[in-house]
Amino acid sequence: MFGGPVLFPRQLHVGRPNVPDAEPLLQRLRDVLDRRWLTNDGPEVREFERQVAKISGVRHCIAMCNGTTALQIAIRAAGLTGDVIVPSFSFAATAHALQWQAITPVFCDIDETFCIDPRRVEELITPRTTGIIGVHLWGRTCNVEALTDICRRYNLVLLFDAAHAFGCSRSGIMVGRFGRAEVFSFHATKFLNTFEGGAVVTNDDGFAEACRAMRNFGFSGEDEVSTLGINGKMNEFEAVMGLISLEHMQEIIATNRNNYLQYQRELEDIPGVSLIGYDENERNNFQYITIEITEDTGISRDCLHALLQAEGILARRYFHPGCHRMEPYRSLYPRAAQFLPQTERACARMLCLPTGTGVGAEQISTICALLRYVVRNHIAISARWNQLSVAVAAPGSPE
Ligand code: T4K
């Protein structure tokens, strides 16, 4: 921003994939090729499903081509129609999975945990409501007990978008066992990835069977299609990547945890910067390092974001600007923001920082030192940011 050299010429990403050693992976991929069974419920997919189900403490795991398709299939298998209550403070896929099937996502505000606020949920229930989808944001579980109670009282289906929460627990119970079903993402940016991938996990036998059929065009026998389906299958290469990653799962989590603890130590006394914590009494995957930027920094989150980007630290404003401010919802519900004050607040304040196995202790120290420096020099930096913003707004100006 001030014309000096960039701190990280080799940019640091949020969501840089955790990649295993190439050789064992390539060997197993060669085995897949030799076997000539590349997809359609192959042995690697079945083994991946078995291991994910075991870790999550559920009877069924149905692996899919990505988390979004898994969500869409879970929503359809659950028979959701009409209105479904979801948080707006999430990735677009949560709302899209409903809207794509002509189900209306009704946006609910969040509470201090950044997850859906059960106190607000109840106000949104109407005769059109058929379900609730909670999101375990950044792997921190939502208020499962309160949501379960609401769904029981109003006879609604409860699903969880657990895209961030594989390997996490609540009150000692692994994520996967809550609601009718939960959905994981194993996208490249997740701590455990299958390149692209996702899964529905459930303890409901009939629900699992429905998801399996829907994943495979609705087939229930060689020539028998018993329901409307789609192609949601995970392939064998993806499952191999998942299986090898599972072998390293605890190491990846340990690295994420060390990164988190280092950020915690080194950000501790920076005014206005607070690290979103993980409950050390639970199982966590620590895959997101999220900070909240308050007024005490003297600098806006967006200014900080721009500055980090300029230095090669590609921090992300997850989940700005909230689904309600994205299309098609922005046009459909132009007044939504006024009912989502906590969402609006979070959208303006949160920033995710790089972590994972691709980020070292020295890099984290540099990021934290930069944040400290920025907050200390916020007046000069904000002035420069304002100057640059004006220049961008008026191209061709002498700047
Ligand atoms: N529900 C929730 C709550 C979710 O957060 C998500 C996905 C879903 C459902 C749907 O699950 P999937 O259908 O995706 O399985 C990324 C991911 O694409 C997305 O999976 C994730 N959530 C979301 C939070 O983050 P973008 O648009 O921010 O991705 P992108 O391409 O900007 O990548 C993020 C960063 O990672 C970049 O700085 C580049 C870096 N990167 C990315 C890839 C793919 C790499 O360094 N290497 C790579 O291979 O959505």
Write structural notes for this entry.
Helix content is 41%, strand content 16%. The chain has 14 helices and 16 strands. Strands 2-10-9-6-5-3-4 form a seven-stranded mixed sheet, with helices on both faces. It has a three-stranded antiparallel sheet with strand order 13-14-16. A two-stranded parallel ribbon has the order 1-15. The longest helix is centred in the middle third of the chain and has 19 residues, at 249-267. It is globular and about 70 Å long. The mean pLDDT is 96. Bound molecules: ligand T4K. Ligand T4K binds at residues 13-17, 66-68, 90-91, 93-94, 135, 161, 163-164, 185, 187-189, 198, 314, 318. Residues 13-17, 66-68, 90-91, 93-94, 135, 161, 163-164, 185, 187-189, 198, 314, 318 line the site of ligand T4K.
Write the SSE topology:
Layout: E1 12-13, H1 22-35, H2 43-56, E2 60-64, H3 67-77, E3 83-87, H4 92-99, E4 104-108, H5 118-124, E5 129-135, H6 144-154, E6 157-161, E7 169-170, E8 173-174, E9 181-185, E10 198-202, H7 205-215, E11 219-221, E12 224-225, H8 236-247, H9 249-267, E13 273-275, E14 289-293, H10 301-310, E15 313-314, H11 329-332, H12 341-349, E16 350-353, H13 361-376, H14 378-393
Parallel strand pairs: 1-15, 3-4, 3-5, 5-6, 6-9
Antiparallel strand pairs: 2-10, 7-8, 9-10, 11-12, 13-14, 14-16
Helix pairs in contact: 1-8, 2-8, 3-4, 3-7, 9-13
The structure holds ligand T4K.
Ligand T4K is lined by residues 13-17, 66-68, 90-91, 93-94, 135, 161, 163-164, 185, 187-189, 198, 314, 318.
